[in-house]
Design goal:
The complex is a heterodimer of chains A (1046) and B (80). By secondary structure, chain A is an alpha+beta fold. Chain A contains 23 helices and 57 strands. In chain A, strand 45 and strand 46 form a beta hairpin. In chain A, helix 2 packs parallel to helix 7 and helix 14 packs across helix 19. Chain A starts with a strand and ends with a helix. By secondary structure, chain B is mostly beta strands. In chain B, the strands form two sheets. In chain B, strands 3-4-5-6 form a four-stranded antiparallel sheet, with no helix packed on it. Chain B has a two-stranded antiparallel ribbon with strand order 1-2. Classes of the chains: A alpha+beta (1046), B mainly beta (80). Chains A and B meet through helix 16 and strand 55 of A and strand 2 and helix 1 of B.
Chain lengths: 1046, 80
């Protein structure tokens, strides 16, 4: 395999890590240290590597010890401090990263002897098991050693295991969060996958890291962990040097010496402080800084490899992340797991059991126990709260623990730091260049806490998070402070265990899929008209419709003129719409709104404001009484979901005795607002029976021949109608209205028109501190009702005081000046700020600019200054109604002649119609995707209809060609159905669906990607995905991306 | 990411839910002093230990329910 390092061509062997291949090519210096620029070489053979950080392709910083070599790999050394981008950002990165969600009874982290045994034992007990391991091949330490099991190579034992469930290699568990939520990164050829595991029980078999100790010159290239030198010799057939000195504070040094000797490395001497009290006191190097010799007291030994066995640190990172407490073991001289905080247990070397045989034995016990406890957890969950949960009975299984030829190991030397004669620095943290002298300086200032010393010296803050240095820092501190290591303690282990790229965290949620975009039934038509969009919540709404390169200001003036003098139309589909039914619907609305609804006549509309309990305005909109016990509430676009939540919260938690039910129909109805003195002409052509509607009246009437709803409500002061048809006909309605001469207008024009009339917008004139009274809406506060939400708060001293900010109008002295929204209002007398500008526009009707503002202690005629961005504009306070204060324009022009008859067809278009060809093309033997268009659907509340999908305790979705019963709410346009089928459908869904597909009870409501869906599995391998129609485009793109990435 | 046992849907990830704060705070009826009313609107307990609280399964069955959670360990238990 060919590869390059810093541009030099080299060759490696299949199966090499980049580090092994570099050693194979005689590379000793792989980079320079961050702070001191000292030459550094490969120090370890795993993810704990502090030195050998390299850039590989588009990945700016990877540990060479974890990079699998591939043909054509290009690696570059890193020098000094990192700089964002520069080199790596030029690289094309076409990898496909995504996520995956899996559930299991037992998750085993680590595929060494203990983890493998745990997985086998859990599987034999019938548990659903997932085993993850970071390396390409299972075996853990067995891959790197020459021990035999039952007289045969240890890997024969590994290959002979019958592993259950799912095994993920090249997968590093990086985070252990609440409730056994474990996150792992799988390195796949096409890009990394971020796995999210939810396990009933976790077995941690994460092994241990060998550690070094601090002695002068311990950072030279050629100084390496003994276990790493052994790994390179045994696993990769690479000798890390020719003449080696082994510094054996632990018996793993002897094992390394034997294996190095077997690989042809000359062992000069084994320096064991436990035997003769001798220690390595310094090193010498050549011109490049590479090791040439080792000082042992007064003796000098020529060597090009110093293999250091300082003892072992159990890899307690995940255990500690799970909030388990570690304790210092005096025999092992290491921190080991103490009390667990979650449903977890450590097994093998990660709890200090270093022998292969005892690790296997411990793994079997841990796996069997985990399976038994996982079954108990489920039994307890299903048991009643007061009933005693009974864990299922298991027989105690018998496992054959293989015989191993390992020698028993003795405790390591309690040695952390060596003072030498030379003035060479002794490093505690190689990656952060932190020396024993630095630590002494920290403790010398009086610091006693390891957390303080960490932050002062930066020890342990590198990309390796101090995996090899953490224990050394604690050991050195204990020596400096004269305290036991257990008293010094460790710093907090935080996720991720190894670095994770932002691209991997983002997965598929990038570019167009980074945040769902909601579109209306008319979106394609807006695109065709060249609309400029703005984001309102997740919706894309046309802001204005420029003609031939028109700027926004000119377009908005033109659109406003059309609405005030002729007829104009806006897509109002995004307004929230909530169907409210029940015997107590009117009474419920009386309690929620500040004004009365029980007195509203059937067929009439009323504007209302609702407050939070603190009395502040929460939302507003028009609610219409469709029938005696049936209302339709509209909400602001951004608050639709919050208002539905609000209604359900009060109903379920405060007034459960009221008979009322709520159904969102926002996506079911496509809405066009037709406004202007000539609006009646247009409406007469598309909905003849609605043209004669009185102000604030409603009619259920055919629109373009399909059942529709027309409301005569106005947000502009002009004659206006809101015309509704089911989603599939929305685009036809919009195109018909425009064909009849209505000028399309966007949200900016809507804002200007309403501001000219002094209509406040929730979220623009209000900010959660504004009462209806502040908005001049005291007329909207019912005096006849005993109570409504927020009423009592209006009598609190703060809300009742007379000097609150209230809504006013402003006219700038200069009619051409557009005051910045948010400008502060001051009087010229040096008094404090009086308020701020909430809305500011240029008005075609007024021929000048104007503002709405919230201000206190001001009255019409007052002179103020509006200050923003260094500009100060004199303004005069006026009443906040600028246009037609007598409401003379409300009824528009009468029909003068027979209205034009709309002759076009009313074509139905399903939400995913535009995707049909791409769905077809994406399909294959693994998975197919199609839209099930125009499926009739109803939501049913109350009693079980006996058909359909149960969504909640008294909530069903019924679909298909059946006759609806009374009270069913037609939601055929609210969602569309995408059918995903084929043997790999599950593989698509697990990349975005966090519920357990394995135990899906026929259907479930679940997040999918970044939207919510109903997921139904009518047959094995077939899924029907019910998605809100406005999210169809997002979900279609998401599914296509997921299928392409299979 | 907590795992919350919805009484209707079973165990689901925390981000499917909306948090509803302390449970058992009834909206006062009848005459209240300003202090009593302000306590209802603004004041909640913040214990270290077991806490009765409300959850709303917003992305599922849309049911409000009460659960007991330990604010230190995040352990849940069924509210009696």
């Amino acid at each position: 395999m060919r590869f390059t390092f810093d541009g030099r061509a080299m060759r490696g062997e299949p199966g090499d890590t980049l580090a092994a291949a570099l050693l194979r090519n005689g590379v000793r210096v792989v980079g320079r240290s961050v702070e001191l620029g000292r030459p550094r070489g490969i120090f370890t053979a795993g993810p704990e590597e502090p030195n050998a950080l390299v850039r590989v392709g588009a990945d700016p910083m990877l540990a060479a010890t974890t990079v699998e070599l591939y043909d054509g790999l290009e690696a570059w050394s890193l020098r000094g401090k990192g700089r964002v981008g520069l080199d790596a950002m030029d690289q094309v990165d076409d990898r496909r990263r995504d996520k995956g969600y899996l559930h299991c009874d037992v998750l085993v982290v680590g595929g060494g002897p203990a983890g493998l045994a745990a997985a086998v034992a859990a599987g034999r007990q019938g548990a659903r098991v997932i085993l993850v391991d970071e390396r390409p091949r299972l075996g853990g330490d067995l891959l790197d050693s020459r021990v035999t099991l039952d007289g045969a190579p240890a890997l024969d034992w590994v290959d002979g295991l019958d592993l259950p469930g799912r095994v993920l290699t090249r997968t590093t568990a990086v985070g252990y969060y609440d409730h056994n939520y474990v996150v792992a990164v799988e390195r796949r050829a096409r890009g990394e996958r971020l796995w999210h595991f939810r396990a009933r029980r976790v077995v941690l078999a994460t092994g241990a890291h060998e550690r070094s100790l601090a002695f002068p010159g311990n950072d030279r290239p050629g100084v390496m962990l003994a276990s790493a030198a052994r790994t390179y010799a045994n696993r990769y057939g690479v000798a890390a040097g020719r003449r080696a000195v082994v510094f054996a504070c632990a018996d793993s040094g002897y094992e390394a010496a034997r294996d190095l000797a077997a690989a042809g490395v000359e062992i000069v001497e084994i320096v064991d402080p436990r035997v003769a009290g001798e220690v390595v006191t310094g090193t010498t190097g050549d011109a490049d800084g590479v090791l040439t010799g080792v000082q042992v007291g007064s003796r000098y030994l020529e060597a090009d490899l110093l293999a250091v066995a300082g003892g072992w640190n159990p890899a307690v990172h995940l255990f500690s992340q799970s909030q388990g407490r570690v304790r210092f073991d005096e025999v092992a001289q290491a921190f080991v797991p103490g009390r667990s905080a979650q449903a977890e247990r450590s097994a093998g070397a990660c709890r200090g059991l270093y022998g292969t045989r005892e690790a296997i034995e411990d793994g079997y016990a841990a796996g069997a126990e985990a399976a038994r406890l996982a079954a108990g957890i489920e039994a307890a969950r299903l048991a009643p709260a007061d009933g005693g949960a009974v864990a299922p009975e298991f027989g105690v299984p018998e496992f054959d623990v293989p015989e191993c030829d390992e020698r028993p190991s003795r405790p390591p030397a309690a040695l952390w730091t060596v003072e030498g004669a030379s003035d060479e620095p002794a490093f505690a943290d190689l990656q952060r260049d932190v020396t024993v002298a630095d630590l002494a300086r920290a403790t010398g200032t009086g610091m006693r806490s390891v957390e303080h010393v960490k932050r002062y010296t930066t020890a342990g803050t590198g990309a390796d998070q101090g995996k090899t240095s953490g224990a050394v820092v604690v050991g050195v501190m204990s020596a400096l402070l004269g305290a036991a290591p257990g008293e010094v303690g460790t710093t907090t282990f935080r996720p991720p265990y190894t670095p994770v790229s932002f691209a991997t965290l983002a997965g598929r949620d990038r570019g167009a899929l980074s945040d769902p975009v909601r579109t209306t039934a008319m979106h394609e038509a807006h695109l065709a008209l060249g609309a400029v969009f703005e984001d309102v919540g997740q919706w894309k709404r046309p802001r204005y419709f420029p003609l031939d390169g028109e700027a926004m200001e000119a377009a908005v003036l033109r659109e406003c003129r059309a609405a005030r003098t002729s007829v104009a139309a806006m897509d109002a589909s995004t307004l929230g719409k909530i169907d409210i039914r029940g015997r107590d619907a009117a009474g419920f609305l009386d309690r929620i709104y500040t004004n009365l609804y029980s007195t509203l006549a059937v067929g009439a509309c009323r504007y209302g404001v609702m407050c939070r309990a603190d009395g502040m305005v929460f939302d507003d909109g028009t609610t219409t009484r469709l029938a005696e016990e049936h209302f339709l509430m509209t909400t602001t676009t951004g608050n639709a979901a919050a208002v539905l939540d609000w209604l359900e919260e009060w109903h379920q938690t405060e007034w459960p005795d009221l008979d009322v039910a709520f159904t969102s129909v926002t996506d079911h109805w496509a809405t066009v607002a037709v406004a202007g003195p000539r609006a009646r002409q247009v409406v007469a052509a598309i909905a003849p029976e609605a043209a004669g509607l009185a102000f604030m009246r409603y009619a259920a009437t055919p629109v373009l021949g399909v059942p529709g709803r027309v409301f005569r409500i106005s947000f502009s002061g002009e004659l206006a109608y809101e015309v509704n048809v089911p989603w599939p006909y929305g685009r036809a309605l919009w195109e018909a209205v425009l064909a009849l001469g209505a000028v399309p207008y966007g949200t900016e024009t809507m804002h200007v028109l309403r501001a000219e009339k002094g209509f406040a917008i929730v979220g623009q004139e209000t900010d959660g501190t504004v009462t209806p009274q502040d908005l001049g809406m005291s007329w909207l506060i019912s005096k006849r009702k005993p109570d409504f939400v927020g009423k009592r708060s209006h009598a609190r001293p703060d809300t009742a005081r007379s000097d609150r900010k209230h809504l006013v109008g402003l006219l700038p002295d200069d009619p051409a000046v557009l005051v910045e929204e948010g400008a502060q209002l001051v009087a010229g007398d040096g008094s404090p700020m009086l308020g701020h500008v909430t809305s500011s526009y240029a008005s075609a009707a007024l021929g000048r600019t104007f503002c709405l503002a919230l201000a206190r202690n001001v009255a019409p005629g007052d002179r103020l200054t509006a200050v923003a961005g260094g500009a100060a504009h004199p303004v005069t306070v006026v009443e906040p109604v600028f246009h037609d204060p007598e409401n003379a324009r409300r009824d528009g022009e009468p029909l003068t002649a027979a209205p034009p008859v709309f002759g076009g067809e009313c074509r139905a278009e399903s939400p995913a119609a535009a995707f049909a060809a791409r769905f077809e093309a994406a399909g294959g033997p693994g998975v197919r995707l199609r839209e099930v268009a125009f499926e009739p659907m109803w939501e049913v509340r109350g009693a079980d209809p006996g058909v359909g999908l149960r969504l909640g305790p008294s909530w069903w979705l019924v679909y298909g060609n059946i006759t609806p019963r009374a009270g069913w709410v037609d939601v055929s346009g609210q969602r569309t159905v995408l059918e995903l089928s084929g043997p790999r459908a599950d593989d698509v869904l697990i990349t975005g669906c966090p519920v357990d597909l394995h135990s899906l009870p026929g259907h479930a409501q679940t997040p999918l990607g970044k939207t919510s869906v109903i997921l139904e599995r009518p047959a094995p391998g077939v899924y029907r995905i019910y998605v809100r129609s406005s999210f169809t485009g997002y979900l279609a793109e998401w599914l296509l991306d997921a299928i392409e990435a299979l | 990411m907590l795992l919350i046992d919805c009484p209707h849907c079973g165990p689901r990830d925390e981000d499917e839910f909306r948090y509803g704060g302390q449970a058992g705070i009834a909206c006062p009826t009848g005459e209240t002093t300003d202090e009593e009313w302000a306590a209802y609107v603004f004041l909640r307990d913040n214990p270290k230990g077991w806490f009765h609280e409300r959850w709303f399964h917003a992305h599922g069955c849309r049911t409000w329910f009460t659960a007991e959670r330990h604010t230190v360990t995040h352990e849940f238990r069924k509210a009696p």
